[in-house]
Amino acid sequence: MRDFFKYAAASALGTVVGLFSLVALLGVGALGLAGFFINSAASETEPDVEKNSILVFDLATDIVDAVPYAGPGIVLEETFSGSSYRAMSLHTALQTIEAAATDDNITAIYLTGNTNAGFATLKELRMALEKFKTDSGKPVLANNTIWSERDYYLASVADSLYLNPAGVMELNGFRAEIQFLAGALSKYGVGVQVLRAGRYKSAIEPFTRTSSSPEEKQQTQALLTDLWQEFLTTTSEARETTPEAIQAIAENQGLLPAAEAQAAGLIDNVAFYDDLLSDLRELTEQTDDAWDEDEDDFTQIGLYSYSQTLDTTIGNRDTIAVVYASGEIVDGEGTATGFITSGGLSDTLRQVRKDDDIQAVVLRVNSPGGSAIASEIIAHEVELLAAEKPVIVSMGNYAASGGYMIAAPGDQIFATPATITGSIGVYGLRLNFKEIANRNGVTWDIIKTAKLADIDTISRPQSESELKLQQEFVNTLYDRFLTLVADGREIPKENVNQVAQGRVWSGTDAEGASLVDQMGGLEAAIAAAATAAELEDWQVEELPQPPSLEEQIIESLFGVGIVSKLPWAQDPISQEAMKLREELSLLKTLNDPQGVYMRLPFTTEIE
Question: Does residue 368 have a cis peptide bond before it, meaning omega lies within 30 degrees of 0?
């Protein structure tokens, strides 16, 4: 074991030394390298919108529930991967599509590529595209080689839907895959003991079981059924078919070749790109014969580039703050991509509360939860904020467990049918390494001054009396969770307990359970905030602000996020290895001071 760590450390050191040796060979110092990225990022000029342009929406665009930045990290990723990568906040994407409707230079929207966005995000984008068609009378076209359900849910809004002759449409239903680690932990001698409040609180099951409990199967089946029904209803209405017809395809075929997809009425045209090109050029009022081969295939501007032409200056009008709470909830200070820190978000909420220029707040929650104590700290700040200003909550793809706790004090809660929410419950994991350590000659001898001094040791299993003490603490936290929801939602605590128990709900069912006020996306929540504050002329400010340039550089050079975008990390084996790494790395986010958590299951993946 000692040699393993020695060699691993040497390998890591060698990698870092190699990186800086390469930089040195290129004649670029660390400051020079940073300067290069800064200058490259700063050199980007504002794009122009040519007459009769088509707005191209690459579905691979990263639409995030946060304020993204286009700094040196973007340049570094593009340099390594050889491809263009851009991220946009959901609000910016929606506003960009809305602006295109009234822009005389935009003649149509063209959808292409494949998306990884959650269904709640896709629902809001789809609604924006529908409004674009209704308000402008301009067409939406969509083309791809492979349409998955996720892509098709959005692309089915198109007036003209294309598929490559060699392409395929995936319509085989949704599934949830849950990875269980209990067998491996047992094999290697890692002991697991659990604390839990809520009979549906299944986040601990991957560590204690080899298959799902009946309660977990029940709630996951209900969730999948709701999401699938939303897909069937939306796409069948768009394509003027029936949910039953699409269900039959999912049951009996699953994968449709292009010609069969057209015969089923799911697409309009089977065409290679050069055939589609004539239609696109016609929309730009230029013929194939008149086209300059040195130019783009057609007059176009990308969604991200077009967003850069819009005026987003914050003026002196009334302001609605959109505060993003996106990622794992952890105990700590500052900000970090993919995490909600108790200190960082609390500071932002306090600043908003004390800022007289902000009249209303939309709290955009996109989180599966995390630390119980961190969640409660943030929820308290939301309560203080709601006592002084209207707070409207907009739930994204996830707003569950601790994510729901921080939403509960809001004046109104909006969700989409595909929002995963609820999971009101608490759990704790107690790991011990006695067996695996003893097998390898490692033992412990504990000297203490009180019976419970080693209650948090990893050297042995917890005793029944120790587990009882900690379970009582978990029960107390669960009771406080119920009370907070009951007070925030203004419903009896007994009613909350009936729909709590750690159970996960879809947005549709959550509305029926009184956990959500109404269906609607981010823009609906912003409009509700304006109404609550009685605002007529208002602007939106997104918070918190992006990280500093220095933080961007450090994250870009040494962060792990870039790895998944590199071309050599795209093969199936690497992807599965990275999934396992990400799932195991979640253990590192479990930093609650008391070791108890409010979070969705770790390894549930819906496809």
Answer: no
